[in-house]
């Protein structure tokens, strides 16, 4: 320890020791500077690993790799469920708005066991062009009763 560190007191001595420990750790890492050691950039490996971290390999085990690159033509982790087909928003848009004679509708989402929580929707004042929409299933309702 240098002579000036003894004269500065215990707090400054601790700071000097910490700085020297960081410098020695950086030298041990091969001379990388602090910006190189504490960088947040992450690069993906060129090939997807076929073994787990302990080195064991399991045939057709897609848990650790999300199935990418295993011959099933998946390019991204979302391509399995985001296909080019018709999605749920397009399917529910094909259903025409339901005309009701009550001012308040209880939407259950279809069948009792496969539905959603009951939502009471105020439909008074709505039209077929501007229906009230269920927030769970997207079914649309409009008022078709007497005023």
Automatic annotation (TrEMBL):
GO terms for cellular component: mitochondrion. InterPro entries: Znf_CHCC. Residues 103-141 form the Zinc finger CHCC-type domain. It comes from the Eukaryota. One of its GO terms (biological process) is mitochondrial electron transport, NADH to ubiquinone. Residues 49-82 are annotated as: Disordered. Pfam families: zf-CHCC. This is Zinc finger CHCC-type domain-containing protein.
